[in-house]
């Protein structure tokens, strides 16, 4: 059977936008350090399959520049990091440069920022190095840039290699089509509307989703809100890493989610969430992951996300808690946005630790509604354990909400035991969304009645692949060499699970049938899966700090979950091997993701050389994928668990003893720091 990359039931593919036939264009003489095409709000509607929105990191400067030119606020323009480009235009063209302070010349003469400037035909617009404060400037063009769209947007996602100009930063010689001007420029951006940039930032945050006292201690949160964190040099559009004190944590570990107390069962992230990957805090950016297994105690208010785009290495950041219902609207561009002040005007948080409401299902399963920023809710079911019945409840809620198509609900992203619900505050407030969720929950069928389509998908696995070995070597040379999982992740997995040999790890992985619980775990349709049979659930912990590089389609285990990395990038799961693509880069593919929720993955072994051949075939559209139809019935699964209860308990007892021994070893070696 020829490999088909097919849609999840909720997917709708946006049409591809063709370039507008127009002679106007800009030619790149000098690209700058990192200049990409972006539009606003970016690539929305695909969070559930691991596609980030991308778009301008400082949306405010970008949109103000477009408005000054008379463009639509979201018209495609250029984002320039640290230094800008030199461009020549085929026709007289109005441009506006905004954002961080930078020297701009037109035909060799100085030109102002924040004001439309006419560039004569054939002359050069030259945007130099950014002087600071700030990190990014924006070049907006009357009529906007007109490039082919991908999944409904021209925004560049360089890690995914799509959007903009071939999914990459600009290079010399690129030709950028420019659309017809809608009319004359509106005029300069008023000074009081221009964002204030600094080296000492205050950023408004809302509490939650995961704070004290469940995950962090009260002292941890007090420290978080009183510390001036320093921006780490290893920061980019995926996330801004911060340097600051290590939490003491309220838990000894993450249980089945991993050995470190920052580990949780995978859940959807919010852009702007402060994500603790182990002990390292990272502010997730517009190119960040949609799903992951780390706690996030606070989330940047939506109207303050522009500040992430201007944070420079060495800058200081203080987090200021605010009331979620009193934050500025990100849809404003004027004084109501409050960007003209160097401080956060409205102070004082909600004081609820990010928990909006507690409830129960009809059969008594606890439901917790958590705040996920000022425009989102995270619905969590049951205790913090891996239970496929909880995922079934998430599925039922997800499907019911999707079928209802309620006004103001913009994104629905399932996790292991949670569903993230994003709202448009202009159409529906958080309080109204909470009432809606409570109403829908009351009308859901009993979980035991759930029957879900569940294909069997057979995939090749190159065990202990050379590419994953290389990633471990890079980690040891560039991050840390003394990690407990180095130099061989598979041996670490063996030790953590009390198995006799690494051959037992191999046998367990290949015997398992992995149920896909989420998509987009580390981007682009990457499945988050766990064995249906609990006796096949190998438990590990995640890298701390995370890797900076992971090969595309590496296969790893973190907590009790397996993931196939959809693309190159950072990561933290313990490697077992590498497989074929789960995301198609072919432009003739309507739906580029391979897997669906509740698919069952089975592995068959191949050599590293065979895998390379299979990967080449799939890239060329020739690959074969073995699939079979099926269903997942929760009632049958309950019977299976009851029949195998004794054997499962015996397996878990041995595994728990090995897990505890590893944790004690970490405690003695100082790996857990001040954890208590």
UniProtKB/TrEMBL annotation:
PANTHER family: 5-OXOPROLINASE SUBUNIT C. SUPFAM superfamilies: Cyclophilin-like, PH0987 N-terminal domain-like. It comes from the Bacteria. This is Urea amidolyase. It comes from Nocardia jinanensis. Residues 48-339, 367-595 form the Carboxyltransferase domain. InterPro entries: CT_A_B, CT_C_D, Cyclophilin-like_dom_sf, PxpC. One of its GO terms (molecular function) is hydrolase activity. It holds the Pfam family CT_C_D. Keywords: ATP-binding, Hydrolase, Nucleotide-binding. Transmembrane segments: none annotated.
